[in-house]
Predict the structure.
Amino acid sequence: MDSSPGQPPGLSGQLGPSLDDPEYRAAVVDLLGVLAYGELSAFVRLAADAALAPKIGAEAQLAGMAVAEFRHFTRLRDRLAGLGVDPDAAMQPFVAPINGFHESTAPADWLEGLMKAYVGDGVGVDFYREVARFLDADTQSLVLDVLEDTGHSAFVVATVREAIAADPRVAGRLALWGRRLMGEMLSQAQRTAAERDALSNLLVGGIGGSAVPGFDLAEVGRMFARLTEEHTRRMRALGLSA
Amino acid sequence: MDSSPGQPPGLSGQLGPSLDDPEYRAAVVDLLGVLAYGELSAFVRLAADAALAPKIGAEAQLAGMAVAEFRHFTRLRDRLAGLGVDPDAAMQPFVAPINGFHESTAPADWLEGLMKAYVGDGVGVDFYREVARFLDADTQSLVLDVLEDTGHSAFVVATVREAIAADPRVAGRLALWGRRLMGEMLSQAQRTAAERDALSNLLVGGIGGSAVPGFDLAEVGRMFARLTEEHTRRMRALGLSA
């Protein structure tokens, strides 16, 4: 699709990777596949959680967040199709881990649903940013575009703060829930990373002429650690110990 | 908002109703409220049912149907706000009956979810068409616009036909399910009609200078009968006895 020499250099100052490189291409297909199914299932689960809302306005807010995820999904799916790849086939390897995450983290009530949306959105944005560094210009601009389009979080933050103010015991329960969400997410992500070498290499800059050649599980671990730190920072900002 | 003498006459050839008429206005607010909450909750439930899909492509299809409902919702909500009405307050009277319908018709599997989407979409379109006849030009054009935007039904029809071809016993189960859906829908609608006089009058042309003055439960019943006939026709077209 794109291998023009004019694309911006990566962080290391080298030329960016090219979709003409079969290993890089396979990794990008994996990446778009996992992001696409992640967005589709986030849509489905968030929308379902909207039914837990105590008020119509809140239900509509969560529904709006879900619809944003669906827009992301269609863009990622369309890019897969544009690369000549069957989107369903590209998503398939990630159905079990992503559904596994959602099944093990079904919110018990409205606040847990909101927190899940907030945690997922936050980690998603961080992850998109992490991975964008190692991508060719076209894929990078798609990923950054999709990333831009999020950010209904202000509503979640305000609602959770109100709930904690109304009943301080809520904080303990939500802190625990936040830890569980992050734990389950990391557990599924780590299992998936171990099974998808090309994708994992891409995530840590190990494909396409960047600094770290070959599979590096430790580097993947460090990326997960950075995601966890950012998650912890967000939880603290909400007044929750993470 | 609109009471210009240039608006198109109703079926009866009279001038259309005007939002300056307080009774008509109250009925339109009720109508937009029930349609808006109907679309929002259809979105939430359909999206949740997408999780039942056996394949990613099918999940994405049902998700896309749900997103169309959300677009309808935002248009109806924005019109309420444009009329100077609090959308949540306008929707509130219809939350219990609509949620009641969805709770009593939670699909047991993917095919039941599809059928529910199909039945709901069909009855919805018929209902929008019924009511559009008695509206002022602005409200009418909104209702007809929202109506235009539906129609993912081809996918449902093809999938249900395939399932029946693969296992003819499916037809009996789905026929029963279709009857239950319609029965529950009518039951909630009839209860709501009995409680919302102005809305019911509007639905049968009893407000705004048209032919039937005053509340006419029998005329409401005839409208429900027409909706049921059309539903039956669609079920037969699917190869199901309704």
Observations:
- Confidence is low (pLDDT under 50) at residues 1-13 of chain A.
- The first helix of chain A runs from residue 22 to 50.
- The interface with chain B takes residues 37, 40-41, 43-45, 47-48, 50-51, 55-57, 59-60, 63-64, 66-67, 70, 73, 77, 87-88, 91-92, 95 of chain A (CB under 8 Å).
- DSSP finds ten helices and no strands in chain A.
